[in-house]
Specification:
This protein is α/β, with parallel strands linked by helices. It contains 20 helices and 12 strands. 33% of the residues lie in helices and 10% in strands. The protein has a 6-stranded mixed beta sheet. A 6-stranded mixed beta sheet has the order 4-5-6-7-9-8. Helix 3 packs across helix 7, helix 9 packs parallel to helix 11 and helix 11 runs antiparallel to helix 12. It starts with a helix and ends in a 9-residue tail after the last helix. One of its GO terms (cellular component) is membrane.
C-alpha cells in the first residue's frame, strides 16, 4: 500500500499533466527565419540575419507612411526640430521686475533660509542680476521697490531711483559675481554676511627688485624746516541757510527745508552764520579759516612752502541733489580760494569720495565702453583745474586726466609727491565690489609701486597722498586693496616713503605700518605712519580745524605737527554782528602733547618708531600682535587712561560734544593706531570705538 505522502505527490503530478494537456505543449522552439508575411513591404531584406527587419508602417489615421529615417539604426534623427517644444511666454520688462521682487520676497520668507541672512542676500542679488541683464531699465525700479518693501528708508525714490544710486547698483549687479566673493563682500557691507577674509596675495613678480638688505644709508637732516599746510574735508555748503534748523532729523541740516521731527513747525536750534555741529562748512567759516592760516602758521607774508589737500570739497547732500555741474562748481570755488590764500606755492590735491557724481563712485576703465569711461569728465576737469591754478605741469595733468586723477610729481627740493584716488578701495564705492578678489582692479597700486621703485632707484623720498584711509578700524577700505597697499608700504619703508596722508573720517587719527604684515609690533618693526587729517567742516559734532607740519628740508620727515581749531560751540554768539568772527587757536603740538617722556631729540622725526613709543606710553608693555587674541592682550594691559583720553579729545578737535573714552575704548584706540590695514583691524581690534561720536 502507498504511503499517504507518496499518494499525495502522485495526485499532484497527475493534476499538472492534466493542466498541460489543456494549454498545449510546455516547450516551443520558434523558426529561425523572420515571418515576412507579417508586413506587406520592408525597407530592407527581412530575411537577412545581419540586420533587424525594417517594415514599412503606414499610419491609418493620416494614411502617411512613416519614413525609414525614424528607425534606421545607422541614421536615426536626434534633437527633433519639427515637433513643438514649448517655452513660457515672454513677459514685459515691468512684469520681469514684478517677478524679481516676488522672488526676493519669497527668499526672505523662506523658512529654510531664516537663519542665513548671507544666503538670503546673495540669492536676492542673483535675482537682481538676472533682471538687470535682461531689462537694465528695471534695475533702479527693483532697488526702489526692495527699499520700500523692507522699509530700508522713507525716501527710497530719492536714494535708489535711476537719478540716484539705482543706476549705479544696476551696473554693479550686471558686472559682479554676486554668487561668489563679490556678492559676499557686498552683502557684508549691508551687515548681512560676515566680512570675507582677504584673498591670499600672490606677490610673485609684483616688485621689480627685492627690498635692499641692508637698507641704503639714510639721508642726513638738513636742519632747515619747511612749513607745510594740510587741509582736508572742507565740504563747502553753498546752500547753507543762516537761521534754518541746525538740529534736523535727517541730512542736510542748516537748509531751508530742514526740520526737527519733534518740533517740525518751530526751529529747535538756529543755524549760526559761521556753522553748526550737524552742518557742513558755510562760506563764512571757509573764509575765516583761510584768513586764520597765515597769522597762525607764520606764513602770512610768504605762504606755506607747499600745501596738501586730502580731498572732499562738496557738501553731504543726498545723491538726488548732486550733479556734475554742482561738483565742478565746488571744485572751482575751493581751488580758487586755496590758491588765493595758500599761494604762491603749489597745493597738492587728491580726490575725495564726495568729489564725484555719483558720490563715492569710481569704476575701473577695464569695464570698457560708456560704463568704463563714465567718470572721465571728472578726471579731465579736476586735472585741468590743478594745471590752471599752477600747481601741476601740463605733462603731469595729462597723465592724471587718463589715470583716475592719480599723479606723481617731483618737486625742485627733491621730494616726490604721489597722489592716489583712494576711492578705488572705499567700501561705499559699489564698483569696488566688482572683481573684489582682485587687489588692484584699477591698476592704481601698480602705478604706486612703479613710482616708488623709480624713487628707490633714484634715492628719492616720497610722500603718498590719498583720501580714504587703509586702516584704523577697518570699516572704510576693502580688505584686499588695503592688504596690498600695506605690503607696498612695507617694501618701500622707511627708506623711500617718508609719510602717508589721508583724510575722510573728519577726525584726528593715525595708523602705523609694521614689517611682515604686523606680525610683531615693536619700535624696531615700525616702518611708516599715515596721518589722518581732521576736517575743516564741523560735521558731525566736531570743531573746525587745519594743520601745519614742520618738515626737514632734506629728509622730508615731520618734526612737529601743529593742529589749529575753532570752537563751533561758540559760533552762535557771533551772530548778528560783524566785528569779530571765529577764533582759531593752537589746539596742540604733537611733539609736546605726546613726547614728554620719550627719549627723543628735538630734531628727530615723528616717525613710525616715535609713534610706537608713544602708544607704548599708553600701556605698560609693548606686545606681540597675534590674530584673534589681541583684544585680550591689550585689555589686560595697565594703560594710562589720561593719555588715551588726551588723544581721544584731540581726535574730535576738542569738541564739547565728544564723550570720554573709557573701558574697552582705551585698548581699542591703541589697536586702531597699530592697524594700518582693514584686515588687521577686523582680525584684532574691538569694534565700535573708531569715532568720538
Amino acid at each position: 500500500m502507498l504511503s499517504f505522502s507518496r499518494l499525495a505527490g502522485f495526485i499532484l503530478w497527475a493534476s499538472y499533466q492534466a493542466q498541460a494537456n489543456d494549454i498545449g505543449a510546455t516547450v516551443y522552439t520558434a523558426p529561425g527565419a523572420f515571418p515576412t508575411s507579417v508586413y506587406g513591404t520592408y525597407w530592407n531584406d527581412p530575411t537577412a540575419t545581419s540586420a533587424e527587419p525594417q517594415p514599412v508602417i503606414t499610419d491609418p489615421v493620416t494614411n502617411e507612411i512613416f519614413p525609414y529615417v525614424l528607425s534606421d539604426p545607422a541614421n536615426f534623427p536626434k534633437n527633433d526640430t519639427v515637433d513643438p517644444h514649448l517655452l513660457p511666454e515672454a513677459v514685459t520688462p515691468s512684469q520681469l521686475m514684478e517677478q524679481a521682487l516676488a522672488q526676493i520676497q519669497a527668499i526672505a520668507a523662506n523658512p529654510a533660509l531664516a537663519d542665513n541672512t548671507c544666503a538670503q542676500c546673495q540669492a536676492s542679488l542673483a535675482v537682481g542680476k538676472m533682471l538687470v541683464l535682461a531689462a537694465p531699465e528695471q534695475g533702479p525700479l527693483l532697488a526702489e521697490a526692495v527699499c520700500e518693501y523692507f522699509n530700508y528708508s522713507t525716501t527710497c525714490y530719492d536714494e535708489y531711483s535711476q537719478f540716484a544710486l539705482g543706476s549705479t547698483l544696476s551696473q554693479v549687479l550686471s558686472l559682479a559675481n554676486v554668487g561668489g566673493y563679490d556678492g559676499q563682500t557686498l552683502c557684508s557691507a549691508l551687515s548681512l554676511c560676515p566680512i570675507p577674509p582677504p584673498v591670499p596675495l600672490n606677490m610673485t613678480g609684483w616688485f621689480a627688485k627685492p627690498k635692499p638688505n641692508p637698507l641704503p644709508p639714510p639721508i642726513q637732516p638738513s636742519g632747515e624746516r619747511l612749513k607745510v599746510l594740510h587741509v582736508s574735508d572742507i565740504h563747502i555748503d553753498p546752500r547753507y541757510a543762516i537761521g534754518a534748523e541746525a538740529n534736523c532729523s535727517a541730512y542736510m541740516c542748516c537748509r531751508e527745508n530742514a526740520f526737527n521731527a519733534v518740533s517740525p513747525d518751530q526751529i529747535v536750534l538756529s543755524a549760526a552764520r559761521f556753522g553748526a555741529y550737524f552742518c557742513d562748512t558755510p562760506m563764512d567759516l571757509m573764509l575765516s579759516a583761510m584768513q586764520a592760516i597765515g597769522p597762525l602758521t607764520g606764513t602770512e607774508e610768504t605762504g606755506p612752502d607747499f600745501s596738501i589737500f586730502t580731498g572732499d570739497i562738496t557738501s553731504h547732500d543726498s545723491d538726488n541733489q548732486y550733479s556734475r555741474a554742482y561738483v565742478e562748481y565746488a571744485e572751482v570755488m575751493i581751488y580758487n580760494l586755496l590758491k588765493k590764500y595758500l599761494g604762491p606755492a603749489p597745493v597738492y590735491a587728491t580726490l575725495g569720495n564726495h568729489d564725484t557724481y555719483m558720490q563715492f563712485q569710481m569704476i575701473p576703465y577695464a569695464m570698457g565702453g560708456p560704463l568704463g569711461s563714465q567718470f572721465n569728465w571728472l578726471y579731465e576737469h579736476v586735472s585741468a583745474m590743478w594745471q590752471y591754478e599752477g600747481w601741476l605741469a601740463e605733462n603731469v595733468t595729462e597723465y592724471a586726466a587718463t589715470h583716475y586723477a592719480a599723479y606723481a610729481v617731483k618737486r625742485t627740493d627733491g621730494l616726490k609727491i604721489i597722489s592716489l584716488d583712494t576711492n578705488i578701495w572705499y567700501t561705499n564705492n559699489y564698483y569696488s565690489y566688482i572683481n573684489a578678489t582682485e587687489p588692484d582692479p584699477f591698476g592704481v597700486l601698480r602705478f604706486l609701486t612703479d613710482e616708488l621703485q623709480a624713487s628707490e632707484d633714484a634715492g628719492e623720498r616720497v610722500w603718498v597722498v590719498g583720501h580714504v584711509l587703509t586702516g584704523w578700524d577697518g570699516t572704510q577700505s576693502q580688505v584686499n586693496p588695503a592688504n596690498l597697499f600695506y605690503q607696498i608700504v612695507d617694501r618701500y619703508s622707511p627708506h623711500v616713503i617718508a609719510n602717508i596722508f589721508f583724510g575722510h573720517t573728519h577726525e584726528d587719527q593715525l595708523a602705523i605700518y609694521y614689517a611682515n604684515n604686523g606680525t610683531v609690533m615693536n619700535a624696531e618693526t615700525a616702518l611708516a605712519v599715515s596721518w589722518i587729517m581732521p576736517s575743516l567742516t564741523p560735521l558731525t559734532n566736531l570743531n573746525s580745524g587745519f594743520r601745519l607740519y614742520e618738515v626737514d628740508s632734506a629728509t622730508f620727515d615731520i618734526l612737529d605737527a601743529y593742529t589749529f581749531v575753532a570752537d563751533v560751540n561758540e559760533f552762535p554768539a557771533l551772530d548778528n554782528q560783524t566785528e569779530v568772527g571765529p577764533t582759531y587757536y593752537l589746539e596742540y603740538s604733537t611733539r609736546e602733547a605726546y613726547g614728554g617722556n620719550i627719549t627723543w631729540s628735538e630734531n628727530d622725526p615723528l616717525n613710525a618708531t616715535w609713534w610706537h613709543l608713544v602708544t607704548d606710553r599708553w600701556s605698560r608693555f609693548s606686545y606681540l600682535l597675534e590674530p584673534v587674541i589681541i583684544t585680550t592682550v591689550v585689555t589686560e594691559m595697565e594703560v594710562n587712561p589720561a593719555l588715551v583720553q588726551t588723544f581721544h579729545t584731540y581726535q574730535s578737535k576738542s569738541s564739547v560734544e565728544s564723550p570720554n573714552c573709557t573701558g574697552e575704548c582705551i585698548p581699542a584706540k591703541i589697536c586702531y593706531i597699530r592697524s594700518g590695514s582693514s584686515s588687521l583691524s577686523y582680525q584684532n581690534c574691538p569694534a565700535g570705538y573708531s569715532s568720538t561720536q
